[in-house]
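TODO from last week: model nitrile hydratase.
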Amino acid sequence: MDGVHDLGGMHGFGPVPVDDDGPGFHEPWEARVWALSGPVMQRTTIDRFRYSIERMAPAAYLTSSYFGRWLQAIETLATDPELLARSPVTRPAPNLPPRSCRFATGERVRVRNAVTPEHTRVPRYLRRQTGTVRRVACIWPDPTRSAATGVYGEPVVHYTVAFAAADLFGPDTDHVVTADLTETDLEAV
């Protein structure tokens, strides 16, 4: 995530508003955008959808609402000739078989500096940081590859890694940040 959309840990944007009791959609057009996403998503991956949002021009991204970004992604993907010619994407089974893991629960790991012009799910504030593996989260296709191709590839191991917020954001923070990262995003300490 190398772009304006990678706002995690950045200052100056104010608090994130949370509306737990509010409606799912604030305007009628948002529900229509959500409905439009279904036919597009049948022919691609969620990672390709996110990558389409991440390629928005910075000014457009920062001035668009959540569903405005979705609409942009739908427009981008719905005009992709390769996607339009594709049969529906086969989704991986939610219970992919376990495989050997490089890292164990409790092991210290460092996040690689995954600077790439392509999609990556590694936020910049975690790059080069050291954390502790909390658990093997799942076996699932590599999001970087499925963002690039729009199809799900070979499954990889994903870990939940815990980081001390003080290491990430300074000594005035006292919580723990967890992130699900692929095995290829991590290296031994």
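Done. Residues 28-41 form the longest helix (14 residues).
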